[in-house]
Amino acid sequence: MSLSNKKFLVSGCGFSWSGQELKTWINVLRTVGADIVDVGGPAVSNQWIINRAFQQLLTDQFDHVVIQLTSLGKLDVEINAERQHLVDNDSLRNFVVDGIWPSSHSQEHPAKALYNEFLYSPRLETEDLFCKLLMLENWCKTHQTQLTILQAYQIPWSNDQQEKLNHVVSYIDNPMSNQYRASDFYKNHNNTNSNTVPCIGYQCDLALTIAKTLLPEAVEKIVKIQHHLAKS
């Protein structure tokens, strides 16, 4: 049963994506009754995150959009039979999502290593992201849709870009991944595997922070979940 009549659209990488085994803040908010459509994916780029969200906005109506920005340098690759070996031979990113290989920062294949060495342009990627965010903000304003942008990883904004984004991008000075690594959640969690998805304790804390602003009626229920986790 829905907690309110607000409908949320969320898009992000594995830091937030609700379709994985590990639970995220999206799963927590859904547990307490939030109506959320999640179009994110594992290890995907900012291009995927924003494009998927905007395409969904063109087909459905939402009260609130939440964009979780990921790190730069990720490359999403369309996969066909001739390219399948790129996926099969990668030790970490050996999966396909909707026909796309989220290669992330993998450099195991020579083509990807050469791309990163000779073709990747971080300044241009940052400019593209900057322009997309301002255009998305303008679209949301003209369509009476609230927009929240969460920065999960460090992004090398220029001073001018950051000044223009300060009002719309949360955690721009101290990304969520940095806060997680500095927290007791990270220190007390077993981080020996290669999965960088924050633990459930942090996810609950993040869900509570988000709910206080976007869905205050969920706060009490999230606090109860936190108390249950503390006892377990």
Describe the structure.
The protein is α/β, with parallel strands linked by helices and 232 residues long. The protein has two domains: 7-73 and 122-231, SGNH hydrolase (Rossmann fold, 3-Layer(aba) Sandwich); 78-119, no CATH class. The chain is 43% helix and 12% strand. It is built from ten helices and seven strands. The protein has a five-stranded parallel beta sheet with strand order 2-1-3-6-7, with helices on both faces. Helix 1 crosses helix 9. The longest helix has 21 residues, at 122-142. It is globular, with a radius of gyration of 18 Å. The mean pLDDT is 95.
According to CATH, what is the class of the largest domain?
Answer: Alpha Beta
Distance between the termini: 26 Å
Which fold name fills CATH's third level, the topology of the largest domain? Rossmann fold
Radius of gyration: 18 Å
- Summed up, the helix count is 10
Mean pLDDT comes to 95
CATH superfamily of the largest domain: SGNH hydrolase
Helix content, binned percent:
40-55%
Shape: globular
Quick overview of this protein structure:
The chain is an alpha/beta fold and 232 residues long.
Layout of secondary structure:
Elements: E1 7-11, H1 25-31, E2 35-38, H2 46-57, E3 64-69, E4 76-78, H3 84-88, E5 100-102, H4 110-119, H5 122-142, E6 146-151, H6 159-165, E7 169-170, H7 176-181, H8 184-187, H9 200-214, H10 219-231
Parallel strand pairs: 1-2, 1-3, 3-6, 6-7
Antiparallel strand pairs: 4-5
Helix pairs in contact: 1-9, 2-5, 9-10
Question: Which characteristics define this entry?
Answer:
232 residues; alpha/beta; Rossmann fold; 2 domains; five-stranded parallel beta sheet; 7 strands; globular
